[in-house]
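Comment thread on ticket #2218

A.B. wrote:
> Attaching the input chain for the structure job we discussed in standup.
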Amino acid sequence: MTLSVVVSGANGFVGRAVSSGLIERGDTVVGLVRRPDTVGQGVREWVDENDFVGIEDRWPHDCRCDVVIHLAARVHLMQDSAMDPLAAYRETNVAGTLRLARAARLAGAHRFVFVSSIKSVAESDHGRPLRESDEPAPGDPYGISKLEAERALLAYGRESGLQIVIVRPPLVYGPGVRANFLQLMRAISAGIPLPLGAIKARRSLVFVGNLAHALIHCATDPRAAGGTFHVTDTRDLTITELARMLAAQLNSPDRLVPVPPAWLRIAGRLTGRSAQVERLIGSLQVDSGHICEVLGWRPPYTVEHGLLETAAWYRSTH
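C.D. wrote:
> Ran it. Output below, let me know if you need it in another format.
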């Protein structure tokens, strides 16, 4: 059965992959974005710039909605300039999310897929992969806001009958990636020696094509209703392995210096960059077995394929 799907944040690199996958299924896609002329081919654009304030009054009369996939968010920032970062995250990620959910319900939606983050659970895995049943302990305002949004949505779903599905990805990579992953590729491509040759801790990642595939499953599979799912590539790499694989895909020299992680942590404390260092050398493994068991989902792309596509995009655009 084809659906009418509203994708918020449809102009982001995850939103574009989701929209493309839905269109391939034959679904009708409306991209809810902040900037005009930014959605992909075949997507009907809807521009809204106000954190969804009053959106129910602006909902297009001819826009039928079966499902919302909510990707738009105030994203994690390493150096946040807001006077009150938690309040700023809450306004967009909690209040804005609830506004969209209420408006979608009024427009006829029966399901709301919320793309949260593994940061709503924890910053590290404390010795074993994080599961959906673990007690959440977010470590920063972004993670707190995502957890609060999850809980507020579930409460609204119980009250209204709107089916809520929560998806918690770890770091997402793929063509169009930004932030730390892009910086790592730039450094490797430039042949800069990096102190990443002795890191044994593993971190879960998810290729954008795998995440999009999982989100479409969560939007369309009746068994997903009310569920919370962690989504990964199901193969975890160390940062050393990741950097070496990227160097090979980028046709760049492998210049990884084997600096002990303890030394890197000391350097992080001395330079005030402990959080950035920990994101490179700390363990953050995520258990995605639940979505495989409940929905029969399997990632359609391997890590090698994902890194190949990401590197090919980088070479063609930088």
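A.B. wrote:
> Thanks. Noting for the ticket: The longest helix spans residues 85-106.
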